[in-house]
Design goal:
- The structure is a single chain.
- By secondary structure, the protein is mostly helical.
- It has 4 helices and no strands.
- 87% of the residues lie in helices and 0% in strands.
- The termini are close together.
- The model has no long low-confidence stretch (mean pLDDT 90).
Length: 115
């Protein structure tokens, strides 16, 4: 539960940073780049595990410490920038962007407090 809440804090912090401190397109580019790097790190660790160069428990620990928080920070930045970009246009695109940005937070809360 505490790990899910910590990861939720990474996501919400980066979402707040995308709303408050960065330009919308800058947040989207940084978020997509950071999410891509986190996916590449997770893929590299998976390949190292499959080739028996490192053990599975070490790969899982490194993915939980490096790739997962980095991916959530990138996701928060990208979705926050997308919400701010669609704010000018309004309509269904903005509501869909808001729903997309709120979905990981809602799912994280549900996962943290699930029985």
């Amino acid at each position: 539960m505490l790990l899910v809440l910590a990861l939720l804090g990474f996501y919400l912090g980066s979402l707040a940073m995308a709303f408050a401190f960065t330009l919308p397109r800058q947040a989207m580019v940084q978020g997509i780049g950071l999410f891509g790097v986190a996916c590449l790190a997770a893929l590299t660790l998976w390949l190292l595990t499959k080739s028996n160069l490192i053990e599975a428990w070490l790969s899982i620990a490194m993915i939980g410490v490096v790739a997962l928080p980095g991916g959530l920070i990138g996701l928060g930045l990208a979705l926050g920038g997308f919400v701010r970009t669609t704010l000018r246009h309004g309509g269904w695109k903005h509501y869909l962007a808001c729903l997309g940005a709120a979905a990981p937070a809602g799912l994280g809360i549900l996962a943290a407090f699930a029985l």
